[in-house]
Structure formats: C-alpha cells, structure tokens
UniProtKB/TrEMBL annotation:
Keywords: Signal. This is Uncharacterized protein. Gene3D superfamilies: 3.30.1450.10. Residues 1-21 form the signal peptide. It comes from Adineta steineri. The keyword Signal applies.
Length: 335
C-alpha cells in the first residue's frame, strides 16, 4: 500500500510532466487559440504554445491513426476559462474554448427569428453586428464546421447557438429567449392545430411565427426539421411546441397549457391494460386526461395522455395510444 502523501506526489509529478515543469506554462491567449488551425500536428501546437498542456483523455495505441488525445490549456487571465484540443492520429481534429473569448456578442429575439437555415456567417454577422464567439471548430474545406454563440442583453442565462457547416447554417437553437407578445397561444388554439398543417398555416392561424428553438437541414428539403415554441396566454411557464418535417407539422406537444384536473387512482391504473381504447380509459377514470403530445395521422396517429394522482403532486400515469389503442403505459409514484 502506498504511504500517505504518495498519491499527492504522483499527481504533482503528472502535472509537471505535462506542463514542462510549471503549471502556469499551460496557458493560452485568445490570439494563440485563434491562430491554431485544424490539421496542425500535436507537436506543432506544443511548440507554438510552449508547453504540451494537460492531457485529459488518451485513447488508443500510440502512433495509430485512430488514437485520440485531448489536451487542455487555461486562459492566461483566468484559470476558469479553458481551451481544448482533440487530436486524432496526431493531427488536430477539433478545437473548442469556453471563456477564452471574453468579447460581448449579443442578439435579440427578433434577429434570431429572422435568421434561417442556409444563411452564411457573414449574413448573421451583418444582421447582429458581430461575428459571435466561435466556441468550437472542426474539419476543413467543404466539411469545415464552426459553432458560434451569442448572448442576449439583459438576460444573463439566455443564449443562441448556430452551427455553420461548409459556410452555411445547418443547425440553430436558443435557450431563454423571451418570446414576443404575439407568440402566445391558448389551449383552444393548440387543440385546433392539426398534424399535417404547413408551417405557414400554423403561423397564420396563431398570428405569429413563434420562437424557433431548433432548425436542422437545408431549407426546402423534405428532411428539414424546424421546432417552434409558443408560450401560454395566461402563463409564460406554459409552452406549446410544434415540430415541422419538410414544412408540415409532424408532432405537437404541450406542457402546462391544459390546466384541467385529470386524476387516476392506483386501482384504476392496475385495471387498465394494453390494447384498451381511449374511450375505455376515459370511462373508467371519468376524464380524458391531458394530451401532452400528438403525432401521425390515421392508423399511425399517436397521442400521449397524462393523469395525475390526488394528494400526491409528484405522482402521475401516462398512456400512449397508437391507432386508437394503448401501446405503452407507465406510472411514477403510484402506490
């Protein structure tokens, strides 16, 4: 068994080995990070930065084209900011940074709504007034990919991210953007919107385009996916989401829009069996439950329905009906 203190010595020895004798040498500036290019060898990066950094991951046989080594450096001004470099077969495959770029790059909800898949980074930069913070990069030429992040003024936890592949946006999402006033929806409106409607139909019916929270694929492609979110008319904590595939509504879901009380008992849950229809469940429980998500049409139509349990706020039961019959069911907290 190692004597006390031996483990500390091993850790210190490892740090010294990887940092050329001084942990403070494992630092990097934004200019250095920006200069390093995908395809550089690990030796080139080490020589350029003056130290090999801290190896945080090493997988595979040395010299193998599939060997992966991930190396990390800290910012010169702040140790909480880091830059990471992933080498594949000795060449830089991906680089990423968190906090190294301390610039202020902001975006508004209106600007985000205007941006579309297929836009170039120059287009986004011109609209927003800044290029954003490049948080990760990989690939070269037509396969080059860069993820760019913007923050939202006045909302410290809100952010927007775009991924550009081959120079154009291939995916985009946001967290915490406040929806405009016209991006509100009532339960009746949510229930009226039908699977198969076009995105234009939904926008016209609801009076606003909603907030795009995800956009993947080429505009006009039958495989393009766009997820749009609205908030409840009475409470911004309630949301309705619509996922469009190739321009048509593929799935819709809601959380908190339906404020009805739909309860179930443990005995009722145990009575219900796969294959039951929704009418059978409704008759037994005395209510239809809250339809939290819907997709498909005809024989492939699927709806997930939730019930709560009286007196136990964290207990619930969920049923998925496909083609009108229960195909899956589960519960949480039922005694």
């Amino acid at each position: 068994m190692l004597p006390s203190g031996a483990f500390v010595l091993v850790v210190i020895a490892t740090v010294i080995l990887h940092c050329n004798g001084a942990p403070t040498n494992c630092t990097i500036t934004l200019q250095q990070y920006t200069t390093i290019q995908i395809g550089w060898t690990q030796q080139q990066v080490t020589q350029f930065l003056g130290s090999p950094g801290i190896i945080v991951l090493e997988v595979g046989t040395a010299g193998s084209p599939y060997q992966m080594i991930s190396v990390q450096y800290s910012a010169l001004q702040s140790s909480s900011a880091t830059a990471s470099f992933l080498f594949m077969g000795g060449s830089l495959y991906t680089k990423s940074q968190a906090g190294i770029d301390a610039g202020v790059y902001t975006i508004t909800s209106q600007q985000y709504t205007m941006i579309q898949a297929g836009w170039t980074r120059d287009q986004v930069t011109n609209l927003c007034g800044s290029p954003g913070s490049a948080i990760s990069e990989s690939g070269t030429g037509n396969t080059a990919s860069v993820s760019v992040m913007y923050t939202v003024s006045g909302t410290p936890y809100a952010s927007v991210s775009f991924t550009f592949t081959g120079g154009q946006i291939t995916s985009m999402f946001e967290v915490g953007l406040s929806p405009p006033v016209n991006d509100k929806i009532t339960l009746l409106q949510y229930q009226t919107v039908q699977i198969g409607w076009s995105q234009q139909q939904v926008t016209q019916f609801l009076g606003g385009p909603g907030i795009i929270v995800l956009e993947v694929g080429t505009a006009g492609s039958p495989y393009q996916m766009i997820s749009v979110q609205y908030s409840g008319q009475q409470s911004s904590a309630a949301t309705a989401s619509f996922l469009f595939m190739g321009g048509s509504l593929y799935t819709k879901s809601q959380a908190g829009m339906d404020t009805g009380v739909y309860t179930i008992t443990s005995q009722q849950y145990k009575t219900i069996q796969p294959g039951w229809t929704r009418d059978q469940v409704t008759s037994l429980c005395g209510s239809p439950g809250s339809a939290i998500s819907e997709s498909g049409t005809g024989n492939t139509a699927s709806v997930s329905v939730m019930y709560t349990v009286s007196g136990t706020p964290y207990a619930f039961a969920s049923f998925t009906f496909t083609g009108g019959q229960i195909t899956s069911m589960f519960e949480v907290g039922l005694k």
